[in-house]
């Protein structure tokens, strides 16, 4: 069965600093990979996804993630964070052809002024 | 287009009471699912459905029942609430495994 490991439960950074949120998954079979974001007291929103093709995927608000099949990783990066990026970020994986998502335990990103 | 709606937003139950959490979608998605979110645990799949009349168990199904009589609705029933079921519950829909859309959540407290 799939499992997802988010290596950091909390990441504090200063505004305009770069950030990397790490995600590793267990299986190297064909997978879809996702990052979801949850702002305080809200539901989950899709941030970006890897389905196929280019291993580097980007979101509209400056985040990017790279699918690394050999390392079974899908780390999320942003070169310069804003206060508004403060949220909890969840990495998720599904086997191709399956709707079932397996989530990591989440990383709380806190951006300080 | 409401997307995915969940009711109620908040609920307090006493141990042993039963209740139904409602989830409705207007996106015509075949797949619907229920997750619970607990601090430090991420989201865990409770039950899911791949279409009307078809349901299956997820990772943490004990104490919960579901049914799917229509494409639009996927209610989650707590048969006899326990304090361990205090959580935030999210309903999600999707199609083809490409993306799932989440409702706003129901915050449940069992005393």
SSE series of chain B: EEEEEEEEEEE
DSSP strand tally of chain B:
11
Shape of chain B: globular
Tally of separate helices of chain A: 0
How far apart lie the N and C ends of chain A?
41 Å
The assigned structural class of chain A equals mainly beta
Number of strands of chain A: 12
Specify the helix fraction band of chain A.
under 10%
- Average predicted confidence as pLDDT of chain B: 94
Average pLDDT reading of chain A: 92
Any idea what the radius of gyration of chain B is?
A: 13 Å
Helix content of chain B: under 10%
Largest sheet of chain B: 7 strands, mixed
**How large is the share of residues in beta strands of chain A?**
over 45%
Low-confidence stretches of chain A: none
Q: What form of chain A results from the Cα inertia axes? A: globular
The chain pair forming the largest interface, with residue counts per chain, is: A-B, 26 and 25 residues
- Mind telling me the C-alpha Rg of chain A? 13 Å
Question: Quaternary arrangement of the chains shown?
Answer: heterodimer
Beta-strand percentage range of chain B: over 45%
List keywords for this structure.
heterodimer, A: 113 residues, mainly beta, six-stranded mixed β-sheet, four-stranded antiparallel β-sheet, B: 111 residues, seven-stranded mixed β-sheet, 11 strands, 53% strand
General description of the model:
The complex is a heterodimer of chains A (113) and B (111). Chain A is mostly beta strands. Helices cover 0% and strands 53% of the residues of chain A. Chain A contains no helices and 12 strands. In chain A, the strands form 3 sheets. In chain A, strands 2, 5, 6, 10, 11 and 12 form a 6-stranded mixed beta sheet that branches. A 4-stranded antiparallel beta sheet of chain A has the order 3-9-8-7, with no helix packed on it. In chain A, strand 5 (31-38) and strand 6 (44-50) form a beta hairpin. Chain A is globular. The model of chain A has no long low-confidence stretch (mean pLDDT 92). Chain B is mainly beta and 111 residues long. Chain B has no helices and 11 strands. Chain B has strands at 4-7, 10-13, 19-25, 31-38, 42-51, 54-57, 64-66, 76-78, 87-94, 100-102, 106-110. In chain B, the strands form 2 sheets. In chain B, strands 2, 4, 5, 6, 9, 10 and 11 form a 7-stranded mixed beta sheet that branches. In chain B, strands 1-3-8-7 form a 4-stranded antiparallel beta sheet, with no helix packed on it. The mean pLDDT of chain B is 94. Chains A and B meet through strand 5, strand 6 and strand 11 of A and strand 4, strand 5, strand 9 and strand 10 of B.
């Amino acid at each position: 069965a799939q499992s997802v490991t988010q290596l950091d439960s909390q990441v504090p950074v200063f505004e305009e600093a770069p950030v990397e949120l790490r995600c590793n998954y267990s299986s190297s079979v064909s997978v879809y990979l996702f990052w979801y974001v949850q702002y305080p007291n809200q539901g989950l929103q899709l941030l970006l996804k890897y389905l196929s093709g280019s291993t580097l995927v980007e979101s509209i608000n400056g985040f990017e993630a790279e699918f690394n099949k050999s390392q079974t990783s899908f780390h999320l990066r942003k070169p310069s964070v804003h206060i508004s990026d403060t949220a909890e970020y969840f990495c998720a994986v599904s086997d191709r052809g399956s709707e079932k998502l397996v989530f990591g335990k989440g990383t709380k990103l806190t951006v300080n002024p | 287009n409401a997307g995915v709606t969940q009711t109620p937003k908040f609920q307090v139950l006493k141990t042993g009471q039963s209740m139904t959490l409602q989830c409705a979608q207007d996106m015509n998605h075949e797949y619907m699912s229920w997750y619970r979110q607990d601090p430090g645990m991420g989201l865990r799949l409770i039950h899911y459905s791949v279409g009307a009349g078809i349901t299956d168990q997820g990772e943490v199904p004990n104490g919960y029942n579901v049914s799917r009589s229509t494409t639009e609705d996927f209610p989650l029933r707590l048969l006899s609430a326990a304090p361990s079921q205090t959580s935030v519950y999210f309903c999600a829909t999707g199609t083809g495994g490409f993306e799932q859309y989440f409702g706003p959540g129901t915050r449940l407290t069992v005393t």
